[in-house]
Amino acid sequence: MENEALLEKFEILTAEKNYRELSVYLDDQLITDIAELIHEVPEDAGVIINTLSISRAAAAFRILDFPLQEDVIRLLAPAKIAELMNELPADDRTSFLEELPSEAVKELIKLLDPEERRITLSLLGYPENSVGRIMTPDYIAVREEWSVKEVLDYIREHGKDSETIDVIYVIDEKGQLLDDFRIREFLLVSPDTVVHTLMDDRFVSLHANDEQEEAIQVFRMENRVALPVVDDQGVLLGIVTIDDVLWIANEEHTENIQKIGGTEALDEPYLDMPLLKLIKKRVGWLIVLFIGEMLTATAMGFFEEEIAKAVVLALFVPLIISSGGNSGSQASTLIIQAMALGEITISDWWRVMRRELISGILLGSVLGSIGFIRILLWNSFFHTYGAHAVLIGFTVGVSLIGVVLWGTLSGSMLPLVLKKFGADPATSSAPFVATLVDVTGLLIYFTVAYVFMRGILL
């Protein structure tokens, strides 16, 4: 733990059972340090939460990882759980509840105040991974006929209950969103200015049923700290703030990296996950990849006669399949990341294919040339490949061009195909693409060898 003094002071005060001084001491610490302390001594999390003021307890709880949040709840009395759940912002409370089993959710919802229960049930009613799940109903909305003075008075009265007062929203009598303003726009004009004279009707909003990934892209493009969320009629339902979007973006990035590595996404930190559960997450893809690699042996068996006639061909099998797998893995990783950043969409498939077609030919030509030169040089010193070294070099070189080209096309197109059919592009992981290209690479290699060497070595 970085803040050793905090841990040491906590241990001294808890050993002395001096909870009054501990409360004063903890309330003076940064929330991030409190969260780190809970992570360091999870068995004392109940003491820490009970000692803190409820607002600071909720602030610390909301930035903990879900497994640790679950542990904290188990250590608290029902009354304290109710107090904590009611204090949490609606979006953070919803994010926590949606991870729990349905029975646990029912019990916790019973502890909420009527209004908080209504809000929570409303948010939980939106599809999983939708913007509605992460929006908060705590925002400042004003009317277009108000003066700036009335707006500022309203903010002073109600701003403390809002998630943010950086952005103020203008709605009509039906609750429909008309415009939004950064608060500085109100601070820099005369108090007598009427709101509708400042409106330009240019604003960006999210729909409650939009995918959370879409929200990430909009935030990135618009450079906003908060965005409004509306329904089909344009009624303002809530807002999504940048801290929630950054949290979702981090989760999406982590999940994609894990899938690209050839495993299911982990729903707990690596060191906290039970070993058998971790194995279960990994073994599925390993079995699929293993069965796929068995096709490599089948392909080798199909060309058994050719290998028997020209054993030298077998020497270059690892070179061929690894080059194809590497090029495919490169391409899939680049395309998956570009799709995650919104740089590429399904409609860009032809542009991607055209670029990868040229890239594959050029990359294959570079590797093929190196392979050809290496075979000739090696043969000139050690006479390893005999009188047909040039023919073998051409076979390997041309095969590398074909295999690398196929690898780049497969790796770049597979994520787009999966996205087209509604699957997660990250599942087209590097190991999966490499396995696919291994099998097809052998077919390309031995087909080229048969064409070049027929009647000579074959």
From TrEMBL:
<dbReference type="InterPro" id="IPR006668">
    <property type="entry name" value="Mg_transptr_MgtE_intracell_dom"/>
</dbReference>
<comment type="similarity">
    <text>Belongs to the SLC41A transporter family.</text>
</comment>
<dbReference type="Pfam" id="PF01769">
    <property type="entry name" value="MgtE"/>
</dbReference>
<comment type="function">
    <text>Acts as a magnesium transporter.</text>
</comment>
<dbReference type="InterPro" id="IPR036739">
    <property type="entry name" value="SLC41_membr_dom_sf"/>
</dbReference>
<feature type="transmembrane region" description="Helical">
    <location>
        <begin position="357"/>
        <end position="377"/>
    </location>
</feature>
<keyword id="KW-1003">Cell membrane</keyword>
<dbReference type="InterPro" id="IPR006667">
    <property type="entry name" value="SLC41_membr_dom"/>
</dbReference>
<keyword id="KW-0812">Transmembrane</keyword>
<feature type="transmembrane region" description="Helical">
    <location>
        <begin position="429"/>
        <end position="452"/>
    </location>
</feature>
<keyword id="KW-0479">Metal-binding</keyword>
<keyword id="KW-1133">Transmembrane helix</keyword>
<keyword id="KW-0813">Transport</keyword>
<feature type="domain" description="CBS">
    <location>
        <begin position="199"/>
        <end position="255"/>
    </location>
</feature>
<dbReference type="InterPro" id="IPR038076">
    <property type="entry name" value="MgtE_N_sf"/>
</dbReference>
<feature type="transmembrane region" description="Helical">
    <location>
        <begin position="389"/>
        <end position="409"/>
    </location>
</feature>
<dbReference type="InterPro" id="IPR000644">
    <property type="entry name" value="CBS_dom"/>
</dbReference>
<feature type="transmembrane region" description="Helical">
    <location>
        <begin position="283"/>
        <end position="303"/>
    </location>
</feature>
<dbReference type="Pfam" id="PF03448">
    <property type="entry name" value="MgtE_N"/>
</dbReference>
<dbReference type="InterPro" id="IPR046342">
    <property type="entry name" value="CBS_dom_sf"/>
</dbReference>
<protein>
    <recommendedName>
        <fullName>Magnesium transporter MgtE</fullName>
    </recommendedName>
</protein>
<keyword id="KW-0129">CBS domain</keyword>
<comment type="subunit">
    <text>Homodimer.</text>
</comment>
<keyword id="KW-0460">Magnesium</keyword>
<dbReference type="InterPro" id="IPR006669">
    <property type="entry name" value="MgtE_transporter"/>
</dbReference>
<keyword id="KW-0472">Membrane</keyword>
<dbReference type="Pfam" id="PF00571">
    <property type="entry name" value="CBS"/>
</dbReference>
